[in-house]
Design a protein that fits this description.
This protein has five helices and four strands; from the N terminus they run βαβαβααβα. It is an alpha/beta fold. The protein has one domain: ATPase, V1 complex, subunit F (Rossmann fold, 3-Layer(aba) Sandwich), CATH 3.40.50. It has a four-stranded parallel beta sheet, sandwiched between helices. Strand 1, helix 1 and strand 2 form a beta-alpha-beta unit. The longest helix is centred in the middle third of the chain and has 13 residues. It is a peripheral membrane protein.
Length: about 120
Amino acid sequence: MAQTERTFIAAIGDEDSITGLLLAGIGHIDSHHKKNFLVVDAKTPLAAVEDAFREFTKRKDIAIVLINQHIAEEIRPLIDEHDQAFPTILEIPSKDHPYDPEKDSVLKRVRRLFGE
């Protein structure tokens, strides 16, 4: 599948973040009832978050995976081992958890490239 066929954005986040993204139009459910988003709350098992991340990063129709940074912290080893350009992993803030650039995996990689 060509890179031009990567047409979707996937999202893993809290209810407010996912609701906003779905209202913006990123939501998609395919013919096999697979969604491109996961709502994470206090009752969501860590294994479900890990499984969704693995699925989204293996799908050939996803170009970007958005994930709330506080959720990314819970699966940091998985995020750090993802080394492909597509899908790109972008950590985003949530209403209750501000963005911390020191924790962002993309910025960490950039710093390593520049020897910081």
